[in-house]
């Protein structure tokens, strides 16, 4: 797998951004972000088209700081969709290595909580296994800081390859479970009009 062109450095297990994840758990019910959404479109869209259609109106954060405040306005179901999109975007673009390299580890608790909410135990196991591999090789992520260091991870950490392949096989099911949850709980996501 050819690594994408990215820069960044992964979070250490107790780094500031990992600890900040506590904020992603809060839900200010009185300030719930529920955009208006066409009922016919809600009922007719499916899979990734459905996921993106209900994500787009809440995907409003201008930066990581405003994202913390914004996520407080998300219901548990909205958080499941929102934070899964981080995982999916990274892993389908550059594998779990890219997910960790681009400092998205801080979202893992929110991702896992969302996966639990929708009942995706297989994906939880896969993400847990990726985390174990990451922790086993954390030093390689911490000491790297260049594009070249990032590219070497793909050659050195082949354990991620099988996890990436499994992810590609499973992520459509995760989106189906998110869709099912959203369609059973529309008031948690939108105001249907």
From TrEMBL:
Source domain of life: Bacteria
A Pfam family assignment: DMP19
All residue ranges annotated as the DNA mimic protein DMP19 C-terminal domain in the record: 73-185
Protein name: DNA mimic protein DMP19 C-terminal domain-containing protein
Organism: Flavobacterium magnum
Source taxonomy: Bacteria, Pseudomonadati, Bacteroidota, Flavobacteriia, Flavobacteriales
């Amino acid at each position: 797998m050819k690594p994408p062109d990215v820069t960044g450095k992964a979070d250490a297990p107790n780094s500031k951004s990992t600890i900040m994840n506590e904020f992603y758990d809060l839900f200010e019910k009185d300030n719930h972000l529920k955009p208006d959404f066409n009922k016919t479109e809600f009922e007719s869209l499916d899979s990734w088209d459905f996921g993106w259609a209900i994500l787009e109106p809440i995907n409003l954060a201008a930066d990581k700081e405003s994202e913390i405040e914004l996520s407080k306005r998300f219901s548990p179901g909205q958080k499941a969709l929102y934070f899964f999109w981080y995982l999916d975007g990274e892993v389908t673009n550059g594998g779990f290595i890219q997910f960790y390299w681009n400092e998205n580890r801080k979202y893992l608790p929110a991702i896992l909580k969302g996966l639990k909410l929708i009942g995706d135990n297989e994906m939880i196991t896969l993400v847990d296994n990726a985390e174990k591999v990451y922790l086993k090789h954390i030093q390689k992520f911490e000491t790297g800081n260049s594009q070249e260091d990032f590219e070497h991870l793909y050659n050195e950490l082949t354990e991620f390859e099988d996890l990436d392949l499994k992810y590609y096989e499973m992520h459509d099911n995760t989106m189906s479970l998110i869709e099912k949850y959203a369609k059973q709980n529309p008031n948690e996501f939108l105001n249907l009009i």
